[in-house]
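As a warm-up, study this chain.
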Amino acid sequence: MEPDAGAIHRLEDVADLGKFLQARRARVNPSDVGLPEDSRRRVPGLRREELALLAGVSVDYYTRLEQGRAKRPSDQVLEAVARALRLDATTRAHLHRLAGVSRLEPGDPSAELRPELRTMVKAIEAFPALLLNHRHDVLAANEMADLLYRPIGWDLERHPNLARLLFDEDSRQFFPDWPACATEKVAQLRKVAALFSDDERLTSLIGELVVKYADFRELWARAEVRDCFSGALVVDHPIVGLLALHKEQFRVADGSGLLLVTLSASPGTDDHDKLRLLGSGLAA
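Now compare it with the structure written out below.
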């Protein structure tokens, strides 16, 4: 069967910046952005010159953008166009991808954590589970995670930051492979610092760690960038001793930078038995 020509055209539209801009421009009601509506409009939505005015760019430049003749538009221009088109965070990120300036949109630092995510984390009982934001603040954790990390003095009510806790003196004994943990954490922070460059709280955290810890400064100066989705984590817990866990990180697919982190051990192993022993204190 021959492919439908209209379907092929629609598939091409998905990756076409100009057609995307035209479609979104047609969806903006002029009255919603303070412009008069009149009977002379031949097509719905905004005219090119109106969109250009709202975005603060020249009509010629915006026309070239829609026609695919403006190569690699700046981040500032794309943001201005996105605001004029009243795009939400997800659609704004899509606009950047179509323009060849792919990036991960930071979540709103003041936004409340979705209760469904907190419920999911709390429902995990067999092994530690945590929900982190892009700064590695702990937004939610189950009771097993609380028992695991309690020896290094974290206060879950205050949303502890794992990077800050890691460089504390107490943590250097708690993590036997501390140098590897520290290298990984700093490399992850460097990556998100580029993705979330407008996040003042992230910038402040990195500045604090650079000033306070010489080893953080040295690791930061290496300019390593890393994203770790799986690996090993060994802790020396005062109750159960050495505990080797398997770490998995799952990114929440909403552009917020949230990570679900799970720490597990295979059934039948000593580490699995130690986790069960640690968890037996839940009822205490």
